[in-house]
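Pilot study result, target chain (547 residues):
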Amino acid sequence: MRGANSAKWVAGAIVIALAATACGGGDDSSNKGAGQDGGTFRLGITEPVAIDPYNSQESEGQLVTDNLFTGLYEPTADGQVIPTLATSKKVSDDGKTWTFTIQKGTKFSNGEAVDAESFIRGWNRVAQKTAASDVAYHMAGIEGFEDVQSGKAKTLTGLSAPDPYTLQVKLSAPDFEFYIKTTHTVFSPVPKVAGDAKNKAFNEAPIGNGPFKIQGRWEHNKSITLVRNDSFGGKKAHLAKVQIDILNSANGVTLEYQGFESGQYNWARMPTPQLPAAKAKYDPQGEWLNVDTNGMNYLLPITDNGSLKTAKAREAVSYAIDRDAIIKGVFQGMYTKSTTILPPVFKDVYQKDLCVSCVKQDKAKAKQLAKEGGLKPGTTIELGYNTGAGHEEWIQAIKQQLESVLGVKVKATGKPFAELLADQQKPKASGAYRFAWGADYPTPDNFLFPLLDTASINKDANGKVTGDNRGRYSNKKFDDLLAKARATQDQAGRNDLYKQAEKVALDDQALIPLWNRTQLRLVDTKKFKNVKMDFHENPTLAEISLK
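Predicted structure:
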């Protein structure tokens, strides 16, 4: 899942001395236990790319889609996978056939039954060529996917329903973690009224089977309102309503913080200049939330075109960045440096300092590699980032460092998030982009396959990249290791292959790690109970209740 969230720093040189403050826990014991039903929970986001499961992809869109739809499984905040509508699962010895039994008696909010056919309908809807889904690649392992994506077929041959509440999935290659992938909202069931993926009425007011349903429709650049779905087949939500304001992408983080300060919002991000004061004020009141999440922050280099086409040029950029100085001066010590592609929370595969160029700035090494990699002084490097989420100042810090160390010219361009994603997809994209990735589901495969596997590039007839491998990285050795991992039933053996694949990608500097993902939020625990952060870094709306 692409992340739009981050933090902000005080304008000026990155060596500004700022008081360091330790990160607090934010676990208030009064924020536990059963509460009262009712109430409206309010928060702000920037404009999502989509809220329909066929193309919901970044944290803003996932906030809505996660609460409108329920699939076979879901991830807990700590990365466990628990069943929701799947009452059982079975996998064949070769890892290619999965059989799921679906809970009977649940319905969509319009009264239609949720059964095996509703899952098949939803998955076929995503995979169709005309959908042009950016997240369809999650289904790439299902038999018949390539034919549907190319327009040769309309349905996935690997999907069948032996009876109304049994879903059978045949894969084109072994994958012993396939059930984990079904936690992604792209695997949601949909009702018959959904139609195809270009059904605008459904795109803007999806009818789901989750704990909430949409009230009215998505008012673009204005608001989305969710209300409790009293026909939900699981544990009912306590909140009566969730009011989501869509804020200006140029200053969304600031507006969230101001909204919390004024009492308008019950959940908010903060501009980094306000972090010390916000922590001092809200942590003692139990309204400060600090979570190390299943996410990472990178620079995404375009590897098939432009100034960073060579591995040595990319490595030169990595060596030229002083991550420690940026963390101290920009993020006020509240982030930690990243030296891996996979996050530290994946403890069984974490390889500290695997990215040698990330450990410490080395100006001489950077200059040497730039020369060897064809990155000449005076070369222009395009550097794209999304506005409204507090990235402007650290982007400027990296721009200054690259220009100072390498003698290049960095053209930093900020755009709204949806436009940034569109730029990454363009056939002639070049340079690097601000990039963050939060796990869609708790497995290393969810970083390695979508971001770096050749199968995740997915170019259309015009050369537009519709998958999440926006850097166009392609290495057969990497692909083979990942395929072998998927076909390995033993978890320890699978983890060893993930480690090998990560090293191959970092040797190529396919991604440039920056800092690990730490999310800081203000939460209204005076009025609400059980206000926590879910696996996707959003509030646990289905669990929140009035005090």
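One observation from the pilot: Confidence is low (pLDDT under 50) at residues 4-32. A full batch analysis is planned for the follow-on phase.
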